[in-house]
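REQUEST FORM: STRUCTURE PREDICTION
Request ID: SP-0412
Submitted by: Lab K.M.
Chain count: 1
Length (residues): 170
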Amino acid sequence: MFLFEKKGWKEGDYVFTSQQNGDYRDMIIGIVTGVENSKIGVNGIIVNAVGLKNKVSQGKSGPQSEQILKDPTPKEIVFALIYRVEYDNFTGILDTSTDPVEKLHKTLYNILTGWIRESIPELIGNVLSLPDGQEKDQAKRVLKQRMDTLYDKDLKRYMYSVCRSLKILH
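STATUS: Completed
RESULT:
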C-alpha cells in the first residue's frame, strides 16, 4: 500500500515496528530523529492493542487476530485498531539490522497516528460491542459526528472505508 523499502535511513523517515510485550507485540509508529550505522533514533507512539488482545483471550476472534498480535505489520494494523487501544509516547533507539523496522509513507503515518490520537478505536469498538438498539444507534451517531469533524481528508476517507467494510455505515 504505502510502504517503502528498508534501504537508506535518514532523519524524517516514518517508521513502523513492534516490540515484545508479554505474549504479543506492541506497535510503534514514529519518525526517525537520528541515524548512526544500523541504529536509528525514533520518536512516536507505542500502541498496545488491548481490545484485540481481549477478543483473542475470550476466544471471540480467529487465528488471523492472534497472528496480527504476534507479528504486526503496517498493512494489517487497522485490524488491531478497530478495538480499544492504549498508547503512550515512544522515544528509543532501534537497530535496523535486528529489529523488524519498516518505512512508512507519510500519508499512512498521518492516518495511523491520527486514527489513534482521535480515539477512533474506542468509538468503533463501542458500535461493534453493543447489541442492536438505542445505545448502538447513539454510538453510531457519535462515531458519524466524529468522522464529520475530521480535518485530515486521508484519515476521513480511510475511516469511512473501514466503517463501510465493517457495515457500521449504511
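NOTES: The two ends are 26 Å apart (CA to CA).
Reviewed by: T.R.
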